[in-house]
């Protein structure tokens, strides 16, 4: 049987039920290619009391885990919520085709945690992701800013998830360039660091102020606010 288990946002965020399932599985994989973890694999192993095997994109997309689930109980651990990445949906579809039993064990994700900013969840528009640019090889996709423009057209907030390995100051540089190209004026934006952990930090600053930040903990995300309700304004001003 295949279990896809959400870990939540902190090292000990796994649910009691999820922990019980992990204990019974013969093999436990950790999907490690979609996020910069705020803790190490060793710390997680200590919490779970179980040996964990790192699983990169190539392994997960190869669907070898489905073949293993035909014979033994296998767990795939996913940071945050288990079905945010489309690859995990593909696993479920393949399990169905192969008549493999599966179970999803949900948990909190960044989509829950951004509510701590004071922005109202129902006022967020489409979520987008900022990839890591490689301008030397002419790779600088900025379609994420098209989503921001679309959200702004309906006065919605824009949540930008940051690609694994992208340093904060580089992400600011990319954001500025993409905004300039798409003629979007950036005022004060939100930067959320390691939400759901004891080290979480939320900043509401201008781009120039954020350029002074020497270090930002990963994972982090960026929010470009849309039209603010007076209650949202009040919370943001007190951050």
Give me some keywords for this one.
single chain; 239 residues; alpha/beta; Cobalt-precorrin-4 Transmethylase, domain 1; Methyltransferase, Cobalt-precorrin-4 Transmethylase, Domain 2; 2 domains; 5-stranded parallel beta sheet; 5-stranded mixed beta sheet; 10 strands; 20% strand
The residue fraction in helices comes out at 25-40%
Tell me the span between the first and last alpha carbons.
45 Å
CATH superfamily of the largest domain: Tetrapyrrole methylase, C-terminal domain
Number of strands: 10
Radius of gyration: 19 Å
Mean pLDDT: 95
General form: globular
Number of contiguous helices: 10
Give a verbal description of the structure:
By secondary structure, this protein is an alpha/beta fold. It has two domains: 2-108, Cobalt-precorrin-4 Transmethylase, domain 1 (3-Layer(aba) Sandwich); 111-237, Tetrapyrrole methylase, C-terminal domain (Methyltransferase, Cobalt-precorrin-4 Transmethylase, Domain 2). 34% of the residues lie in helices and 20% in strands. The chain contains ten helices and ten strands. The chain has helices spanning 16-24, 41-48, 57-62, 64-69, 86-97, 110-113, 143-153, 168-181, 207-210, 230-237; strands at residues 2-6, 27-31, 53-55, 74-78, 102-105, 128-130, 158-162, 188-193, 201-206, 220-224. The strands form two sheets. A five-stranded parallel beta sheet has the order 3-2-4-1-5, with helices on both faces. A five-stranded mixed beta sheet has the order 6-7-10-8-9. It is globular, with a radius of gyration of 19 Å. The model has no long low-confidence stretch (mean pLDDT 95).
